């Protein structure tokens, strides 16, 4: 029996072993991606999610309902790397939950489990919204997610040891499926390598880098600063723009700057969820990556057809 079949057999064997019913763990998730990952490992958890796919996770209000949810939670799962610096410290302070404080087991930061891209030794306001720890938008990196999932499973087991066997078997199941899908994504990446996209912020940076897709001109003049008319006009003179196949923005971002540039360049605009939505076809992180790759493949084919048509029409 080869290793892949053996792993699948062990996963099935673990799945069929019944476990006694236990009380639901109360989890506070800062972003939908971590709520989704917790649900993969502990589907019975009672999860409160602070943000949605339509919100910029950098900026939300520390509402009373979120403070109450944090106060009653057994575990908080957040991105870290200063992504939530504008509101998470306030929630933690006002909730006064002894289990959920920096350095305590009840606060899990995904960014602490992996190495981040583009850390900075020196950060000041002139650079824009730059995170000294590195780019925090790691949740779409096919290689880093298994590291986060394993560390999260360990933390869940430490907090709820009576559910350890169930959590461990779901982690194995998740990793088997993730590895199979990652192999398929790698095949798809071969057809996308060398592609260039105009982007806004670094929401998809980890995935694009993994795919070999270049992030070309950025609609933001500096990280975290909204696009300006002056900057957009400068982009029209950027030589990289000639190599771009499309403009990629997140669903929570204002589409007007992307559409303004599109009308002047003919580039298509691709609006993608920056995180899971809980609904098909982007209900999980794996499904979201599938959806993004399928959309990029379609964009690549459309741009190739458009380029061929322009060549045919040229005198």
TrEMBL record:
GO terms for molecular function: metal ion binding. Keywords: Signal. The lineage of its organism: Bacteria, Pseudomonadati, Pseudomonadota, Gammaproteobacteria, Pseudomonadales. InterPro entries: Bact_metal-bind_prot9, ZnuA-like. Residues 1-23 form the signal peptide. This is Zinc/manganese transport system substrate-binding protein. Coiled coil: none annotated. GO terms for biological process: metal ion transport. Pfam families: ZnuA. Transmembrane segments: none annotated.
């Amino acid at each position: 029996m080869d290793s892949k079949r053996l792993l699948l057999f062990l996963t099935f064997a673990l799945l069929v072993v019944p476990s006694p019913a236990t009380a639901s763990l109360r989890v506070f998730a800062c972003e939908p991606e971590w709520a989704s990952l917790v649900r993969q490992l502990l589907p019975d958890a009672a999860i409160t999610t602070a943000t949605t796919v339509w919100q910029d996770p950098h900026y939300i209000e520390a509402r009373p309902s979120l403070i109450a949810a944090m106060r009653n939670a057994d575990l908080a799962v957040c991105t870290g790397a200063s992504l939530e610096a504008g509101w998470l410290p306030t929630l933690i302070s006002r909730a006064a939950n002894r289990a959920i404080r920096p350095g305590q087991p009840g606060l899990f930061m995904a960014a602490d489990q992996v190495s981040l891209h583009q850390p900075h030794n020196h950060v000041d306001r002139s650079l824009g919204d730059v995170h000294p720890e590195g780019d925090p938008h790691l949740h779409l990196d096919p290689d880093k997610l298994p590291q986060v999932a394993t560390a999260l499973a360990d933390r869940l087991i430490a907090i709820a040891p009576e559910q350890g066997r169930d959590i461990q078997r779901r982690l194995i199941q998740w990793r088997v499926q993730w590895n199979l899908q990652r192999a398929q994504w790698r095949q798809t990446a071969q057809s996308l390598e060398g592609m260039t996209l105009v982007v806004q912020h670094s929401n998809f940076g980890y995935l694009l880098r993994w795919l070999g897709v270049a992030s070309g001109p950025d609609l933001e003049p500096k990280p975290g600063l909204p696009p300006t008319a002056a900057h957009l006009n400068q982009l029209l003179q950027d030589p990289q723009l000639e190599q771009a196949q499309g403009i990629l923005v997140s669903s929570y971002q204002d589409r007007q700057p992307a559409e303004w540039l599109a009308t002047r360049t003919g580039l298509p605009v691709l609006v993608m969820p920056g995180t899971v939505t809980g609904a098909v076809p982007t209900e999980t992180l794996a499904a979201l990556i599938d959806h993004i790759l399928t959309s990029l493949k379609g964009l690549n084919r459309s741009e190739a057809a458009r380029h061929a048509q322009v060549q045919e029409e040229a005198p």
